[in-house]
Input
Amino acid sequence: MGEVIVITSGKGGVGKTTTTANLGTGLASLGKKVVLVDTDIGLRNLDVVMGLENRIVYDLIDVVEGRCRLKQALIKDKRLENLYLLPANQTRDKTAVSRQQMIDLTSQLREEFEFVLIDCPAGIEMGFKNAIAGAEKALVVTTPEVAAVRDADRIIGLLEAAEMEPPRLIINRLRPEMVRKGDMMDIEDMLEILAIDLIGVVPEDQYIVISTNRGEPAILDKHSRAGQAYRNISRRLLGEEIPFINWEAGSFMSRIKKLMGLG
Amino acid sequence: MLEFLLRFFGRDTASSKKVAKERLRLVLVHDRAGVSPHLLESLKNDLIKVISEYLDIDTDGLEVSLTHENDAVALVANIPVLRVKRTFKSIQEPAFKV
Output
């Protein structure tokens, strides 16, 4: 029986889909059998981030409405043998699927896969409620901004009310140089406010844009800082104790400058 | 230019991180109280329980709310007192000193 993990944030544009694509790819490259489920009905994106947009025949709605078998709708990843995508429908809306249908779908998927990662739509309405319906674990993605942290707080409250396991936090797009200048909230600030466990910090990385342009998750690139962070989070999902990279400490030169009172 | 100089000499005018954190803290006080309307009700009931040990209060006239003034959040409780309990002092101190 596999684990069902929902990746959520409340606010849009903080990196849920990128996180789902990278962690799925990370877990699959560690040998796990993984399926990614895009529940953003009407605004499907995960297929494009994974570079699989040309292979879609059937989607999630076709499966729940019985127009195809689950296996027919699963798209095999280009790069990894044991990674699959169940894409969202692009012509319907969030009301096209019910909570019970999502619970049934995820329980079918968890028999086949070790990890079922659910990419949740932004917002707290129907789409969110459906996305969390069949999941027992949640990862909350936020960025170091007031609006994103506020929405994350709201989402954490709703996840607690739904009696799920305590969610874990991913801080995305941290800019270490801005944190050092005191112009961006640091990790400790956000953990203090949200009072949940941290599972990883992903630094801002131009490579994410490049890899998304190409449809190849950044985690596959050895040189990407964000990729390194996602590799660590993938291992932590498997229960490994991986020390956190201190993105805030800065380079050797910036620490010297700080010592001299110039930083 | 002045801002640049202040920054250059490390005398940063209030860092924007601190501003962000403070704004967030305030906004969450209201969000969280709003998310659980039971919070204030439950707090009110507990207040009645504790205060009733010391004072007789008018529980119907009791009002509890969060207010937002001068960048600070305060808990305001308006509690009409009917009478002070006479028995309290005798519990604290022995009635007779030997």
